[in-house]
């Protein structure tokens, strides 16, 4: 899609590694599973098959407010709702680490308008990836 239109908008992180890391942080996944996915993702970045997005918009939400909204919306099933509430702190740590190694890509809070986007260098920066992972492990 990006090759055809020059940009793509996703409502998730193309790397997907944040999820297993966050699960590991809250005790819902093993370190072994984390390390397997970490190695596979690093290799995929090194091959230039997937990389960092140019912009990440990360929202924080008060868990109680999220619960109230979920209870008010009976149109959606939320089988993993409490799990996702528990993941928030780890996800914020993940994107804070990403923001430190690739400044300017992460925006915390939902903007009132779509931010101006530009293609940034470092999409396949294995060095930045390694720095981010090292900083996450240093915080453990």
Report what the structure shows.
With 140 residues, this protein is mainly alpha-helical. It has one domain (17-112, 120-137). Helix content is 52%, strand content 4%. The protein is built from six helices and two strands, in the order αααβααβα. It has helices at residues 2-5, 17-25, 31-46, 63-72, 81-101, 126-138; strands at residues 56-58, 106-108. Strands 1-2 form a two-stranded parallel sheet. α2 (17-25) packs antiparallel against α3 (31-46), α2 crosses α5 and α5 crosses α6 (126-138). It is globular, with a radius of gyration of 16 Å. The mean pLDDT is 90.
In short:
By secondary structure, the protein is mostly helical. The chain is 52% helix and 4% strand. Helix 2 (17-25) packs antiparallel against helix 3, helix 2 (17-25) crosses helix 5 (81-101) and helix 5 (81-101) packs across helix 6 (126-138).
> How is the largest sheet built, in terms of strand order?
1-2
Q: Largest sheet, if any?
A: 2 strands, parallel
Overall pLDDT metric: 90
Number of domains: 1
Shape: globular
Percent in strands: under 5%
Radius of gyration: 16 Å
Estimate percent helicity.
40-55%
Q: Which ranges are low-confidence, i.e. pLDDT below 50, for 5 or more consecutive residues? A: none
What string gives the helices and strands in order? HHHEHHEH
Which class of secondary structure composition applies to the elements?
A: mainly alpha
Enumerate how many helices there are, as a single number.
Answer: 6
The beta-strand count equals 2
Head-to-tail CA distance between termini = 37 Å
């Amino acid at each position: 899609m990006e090759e055809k239109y020059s940009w793509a908008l996703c409502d998730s992180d193309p790397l997907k590694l944040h999820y297993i890391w966050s699960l590991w942080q809250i005790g819902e996944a093993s370190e072994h599973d984390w390390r397997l996915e970490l190695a596979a993702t690093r290799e995929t970045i090194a091959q230039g098959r997937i990389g960092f997005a140019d912009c990440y918009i990360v929202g924080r939400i008060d868990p109680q407010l999220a619960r109230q909204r979920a209870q008010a919306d009976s149109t959606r099933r939320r089988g993993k709702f409490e799990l996702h509430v528990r993941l928030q702190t780890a996800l914020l740590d993940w994107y804070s680490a990403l923001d430190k190694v690739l400044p300017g890509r992460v925006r915390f809070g939902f903007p009132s308008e779509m931010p101006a986007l530009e293609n940034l260098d470092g999409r396949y920066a294995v060095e930045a990836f390694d720095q981010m992972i090292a900083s996450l492990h240093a915080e453990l």
